[in-house]
Design brief:
The chain is α+β, with helices and mostly antiparallel strands and 88 residues long. The protein contains 2 helices and 2 strands; from the N terminus they run E-H-E-H.
């Protein structure tokens, strides 16, 4: 999930969703379009509902594609994440 945002405004009960797949939420702390607090709240809500969530705040990043080396992300890190979270 890039720039995590719940367009339903919390109307979904994430605890009822199945299957609960691992998700990696990445959000810039200086996002001026989707507030950082929204991404954090989405990650917390999913995690509190039993989802395996990895939350990565990107310090100073705005509303942009965050999967870039200058933000500390790499294709290898993504590959390692995906292969470590195989479907049951």
């Amino acid at each position: 999930i890039n720039a995590g945002y719940d367009p339903a405004g919390g109307q979904f009960d994430f605890a009822l969703a199945s299957p609960k797949r691992p998700a990696w939420v990445i959000h810039g702390t200086s996002d001026n379009v989707v507030p950082f607090s929204y991404g954090k709240a989405l990650a917390d809500s999913l995690s509190n509902s039993g989802w395996d969530i990895t939350f990565t705040p990107i310090s100073g990043a705005t509303h942009t594609w965050l999967w870039r080396p200058q933000y500390g992300q790499s294709n290898q890190a993504l590959w390692d994440y995906l292969t470590s979270h195989t479907a049951p």
